[in-house]
Amino acid sequence: MTDKDAKAHRQLYAKIPRFKCIEGCTDCCGPVPWSSFELAAAGLTAPPPERADKQCQFALKGGCEIHERRPLMCRLFGTVEDLRCPHGRGPLQLLSVDEGHAIVRRYKRIAVS
C-alpha cells in the first residue's frame, strides 16, 4: 500500500456523496470487487470468501464491521441512479449513471496499477 494508492482511493471516495443508512441494515452487503489497497486497509490478503447467503462476511451484528474501510462498490451503493437503496435512502442528489460509471472506470485503473 503506497501513499499514491491511498491518495488515489481517497480522491475517488471524495466524489461519492454520503448519506445515512438505516441502522442495522445490510441489504446491500454482498460480494464486491476489492483493490489491493482496500484489502490491505481492511487487513486482508485476499477478498473475503463468498458466503452461502451471498452476504458479505463483514455484515454482522446489524451493520458493517469495516464501514470506514469498506471498498468503493460498497460506498457507491445507494448513491448512483442505477444503484439505488431498496429502502429509498440516499443523498439529496444522486450521481448520474455516467458519473457512477466514470468513478468505476477510474477505480478499475487504479485498482490494477
SSE arrangement:
Elements: H1 3-14, H2 36-41, E1 59-60, E2 63-64, H3 72-76, H4 97-111
Antiparallel strand pairs: 1-2
Helix pairs in contact: 1-4
Q: What structural class do you assign from the helix and strand content?
A: mainly alpha
Gross geometry? globular
Rounded mean pLDDT is 92
What is the helical fraction, as a range of percent?
25-40%
Provide the gyration radius in Å. Answer: 14 Å
Please give the order of strands in the largest beta sheet: 1-2
Number of domains: 1
Query: Low-confidence stretches at least 5 residues in length (pLDDT < 50)?
Result: none
Largest beta-sheet details: 2 strands, antiparallel
How large is the count of helical segments? 4
Compressed to H and E, one letter per element, the order equals HHEEHH
Oligomeric composition of the shown chains: single chain
Number of DSSP E strands: 2
Rounded to the nearest angstrom, the distance between the terminal CA atoms is 11 Å
**Strand proportion:** under 5%
